[in-house]
Amino acid sequence: MNLKCPKTNLLRAVSTVQNVVTGRTTLPVLSNILLEADKKGLRLSATDLNITMVAVAECDVTATGAVAVAGKRLADIVRELPDGDIEIEVDKDWSVTISSSTSVFKLRGIPKDDFPTIQKVPDKADIEVPQAVLGEMIRKTVFAASHDESRHVLNGLYVKLGATRITMVATDGRRLTLFGKEAEIGGEDREMIIPAKAVIELSRVLGDEGNVGLSMMDNQIGFTIDGTHMTCRLIEGTFPNYEQVLPKKNDKVVGLDRTELMQAVRRMSLVTDEKSNSVKFEVSPKQLVLTAGAADVGEGREQISLDYNDEAISIAFNPAFLLDFLKNEGADEICMELGDSLSPGLFRPGEQGADEYLYVVMPIKI
Fold first, then answer.
1. Tell me, which fold does domain 246-361 have in CATH?
2. Which pTM was predicted?
3. Average of pLDDT values for 4-13?
4. How many Å apart are CA 362 and CA 365, to the nearest integer?
5. What is the fold, at CATH topology level, of the domain defined by 127-243?
6. Least confident of 37-51, 59-73, 346-360
7. C-alpha distances in angstroms, 120 versus 52, 114, 217?
8. Which CATH number fits domain 2-114: 3.10.150.10, 1.10.8.60, 3.90.960.10, 3.40.30.10?
9. What values do phi and psi take at 342, rounded to 5?
């Protein structure tokens, strides 16, 4: 194999697939990136057996071939090489030479046959979704997915695709995000649970223009974005009935400036610790008082003026959970809807429009 590739093209492709490469694995081969050169260019593939990412780099190929090489090492070398063309040559003993105008590196490669088989994404997608829509929905939901491996169905993002609407839900049992957005995608209704890691990797390659193609493949789903393809295994199981979690009797509605609240919560979080990881909200006519404190740290207090005339209520929340919502929601105004001190709080943008974005947070006992 012999090819010459502009650094910008090669670095873009390597960076796209590199995050899938894992260094912590019982299968050393999974720490490699597969390089395949043909007349169309250079195709780079990485997999952890659950997620596969494939990217293409335009280059001049003088000799076709394939080799797998240490992914992190390849990425570090390409990143540090000077701008200009990079030449890659593979010998018969799988020695990979990477050179530029001033530098030469040699890495030990392995044959393509030793690398896992790459799942091919169908040429024609089942449906297409605007990249900007998918990116926004992922950003506003995936942070609430669980990291507890014992509850595998919560380790992913529940996605419902309808003919005219997309709904995404994520929860870790202590909070829940729901985002429903109108989108003309056609086809039959589909439901699936996509692993959170896969969704995060997908979001890295989504842009603001164009569509992403979705292909259903048994227990897998494939995504196509320009010259990049990603496949992942879907999580098997039944996602909880999230509609039962949504508060129905939160009649105390508080309008707040998102930035003001975010800054106040962030400041109060400075005087919390692992044992006292909560910020108390004391809502009363005309004002909201936030307090926090820990015995070994200190305490803080902040006051926000409100246009509120209902009965007083006190409730406490995990500040990190609130900040996750506030920093990902772009609306100027948000609504906080409360029932009582033991009922979940519901947060949403001040103006809903056609979208439905809800964030439910379980309170911390005061």
1. DNA Polymerase III; Chain A, domain 2 (3.10.150)
2. 0.90
3. 96
4. 9
5. DNA Polymerase III; Chain A, domain 2 (3.10.150)
6. 346-360
7. 10, 18, 10
8. 3.10.150.10
9. -110, -5
